[in-house]
Amino acid sequence: MAIAGNLLPENAESIETDASAWQALGNATGLAQGSGGTLGSKNLLFKSVATGDTQVGTVTPVSVTAGTEYWACASVFPPVAGAQSRMVIRWYTSTGTLIVADQGPVVAGTSGSWNQVALVATAPVNAATATVGIRVTATVANQTWFADRIFLGLTSTSGTANNTLPFNTESVEVDSSGWTASALCTLGISTSAFTWYQSLRLTSTGAGSCLATTLPAQAPAVTPGTEYVAYAYTTAGTAGLTQKVQIRWLDGSGAEIGVSEASRTLASGQWARCVVVGTAPVGAAKAIVGVAPQATASGQQWAYDRIVLAPSSALLTTGNLLPYNVSEIEQDASGWTVTGGTGTQSNERVLNAAYALKAVAAGGDMTISLTTPVGGVVDGLGYQFAPPVNKSAARVYLTRIEWLNEAGDAVRTRVQSWSGAVDTWIVGTMADLAPVGAVAARLSLIVPDAPAGEAWYMDRVEWRLGGLTTRAEPASGGGAQITVRGLTTGGPTYLWSLNRIIAGQAPQPVRGWAGDLVSQSIGGDIAIVVDYEAPLGVPVQWRATLQNPSGPGTLNYTSDPVTLDAETTDVWLKDPGLPQRSARFTVATPMPTWTRMARQGTNQVHGRSLPVIISDVRGGKSGTLSVVTETDDERAALWWVLETGNTLLLQWPPGWGEDDMYVSVGDVQASPVVDFAEFHDRTWQLPLTQVDRPIGGVTGSADRTWQTVKDSATTWAEALANATSWLDVYTGA
């Protein structure tokens, strides 16, 4: 099987088919398949013609990119102890002209075992292709050498993304030149590796605190006040020894001004990830990484691989506002407090990196909460809390956001329940709008009635701006503007709905642009809807819901209540589909006398003194509403509402004992209040018949004006582009 990321053909890598991918380049002969190897059952066999420099290389160049860093390596089996070998990369132009050959360090081989040769090099200007070669120093003529597992690839894909350390310092695949022994130790190469083929070996020279560090000359720049993470995968030859990983902070002159460190006790022969999280102090300009095992005797050994130093923001998921150790639980479990159980760092079930939080219930409710609330909250913005959970029981759990003011008191708490599959990672994402006065948030995961011993795992916890939220506020025209954000939270196939929530009533769908907003496709992350049918003078909430149409998965968010203004003597007449045709009018006396028609048939039956009545459901209300207009503008507004003959929504002030209703208006009378021509007051008689809520969507808005039309386009051609009438232009249809 080909090595992942290898640019060389598989047969050049492992020689399992034949030796045709290789050629003699100097003082070499007899290229053939050898038996045995490090990658399959075959290897490359070649012989020296005479004593001295002997070279072989790949036949076919592979494409490379100028200015990009590559690394190459091979396993070489020398014929005698001390025999020297090295790795070579030859760079060529697009026409096949050799530009330069880069060579790795000389390796004096160990007899009877495979040795790695490697190098890291950057493709020079004008480089288009490259070949790899192996260069050895033959000690006698006709000397047999073997090679296998030959690799050429990118360091950017072979190493850790966002690592500020050079590839060889991280992986030690070439040599240990990126490290220096600082105290009680010597450094070398170990053939034991966590990734790739070799690692850094540290051997104690006495009992005490050993120390090896990356080279100060290669120290990356850091920014004071920024959080950084350093880690190394470590294995120890002796169990129970303490291992420290350090970030050593340097000022601009290279002087050390502080150390961040974390400890871990290692088991024997097992690779463990040792992590330290630290914030660059004031004055810090650079940083180096230190590994500091505590030796109890001379000759004890540790191996280090995949050593990383990076800003924590580069290792967190994009936009995550939690500190690294709180989100990833990689240094320890101190970011979380478990009540009703115990919390520890664990590698038993891990979603990301090496560790997760393991919470074991003591019996009863178990709560996992942030040890320190996360600050930086801005009221009015939406935030989402997403704690991935792995559980072994089919149990409902809760996520909770508590908003805290400057005194640390909760100003609002929101809770959402979740279920989901067992023995797999599930994410219950909830969101909320930060209320006025909130400066921080305490995040929690709650397991109600958890049996003693039940284990829950949590990892890669996210706290970020966004998520599904709904904000409601009064709008002109007697409506409420609803802003829904986070519609893309569920996924591209989810559908969304928006309902009006009134105490004591079933949820009611909100009218949208093409009809009721029920199971709508998602066209963007934000939707703004004005609900002109919300009742006046009573608390109303709006709930946005995301639903997976092809399986389980529902998210919802309910807005804070909003009470729309209602005059004590006025009613609203609204056209549900054309909110421009809506206005408020003062009710005149007498109040309507409502009639509900009986649908009955009276049948006089022969031989009976009493009739047989056949009846159906009673009809809706009918009656006459009297309203008063005082000005020409009010009179024109009422005619504007009535002009279309559409079904209207009649909304009453609260406390009148009248229900909002949809009505059809019959023949209208407008009578002068007094018989004086210059007195413009009118009393209107509006015959009403109650009807069902009309179907259809909303066109335009109550506050769209000609200025709006002017501002929406630079030319009349643009304004008229999609309109069939001037009314379409004005209403925005």
Question: What do you see in this structure?
Answer:
With 733 residues, the protein is mainly beta. Helices cover 7% and strands 47% of the residues. It contains 9 helices and 56 strands. The strands form 11 sheets. Strands 1, 4, 5, 7, 8, 9 and 11 form a 7-stranded antiparallel β-sheet that branches. Strands 13, 16, 17, 19, 20 and 22 form a 6-stranded antiparallel β-sheet that branches. Strands 24, 27, 28, 31, 32 and 35 form a 6-stranded antiparallel β-sheet that branches. The protein is elongated and about 130 Å long.
Largest sheet: 7 strands, antiparallel
Strand content: over 45%
Number of strands: 56
Helicity, as a percent range? under 10%
Q: Structural class, please?
A: mainly beta
Average pLDDT rating:
93
Number of helices: 9
End-to-end gap: 62 Å
| Unreliable segments of 5+ consecutive residues | none
- Over the alpha carbons, how many angstroms does the gyration radius reach? 39 Å
The shape is elongated
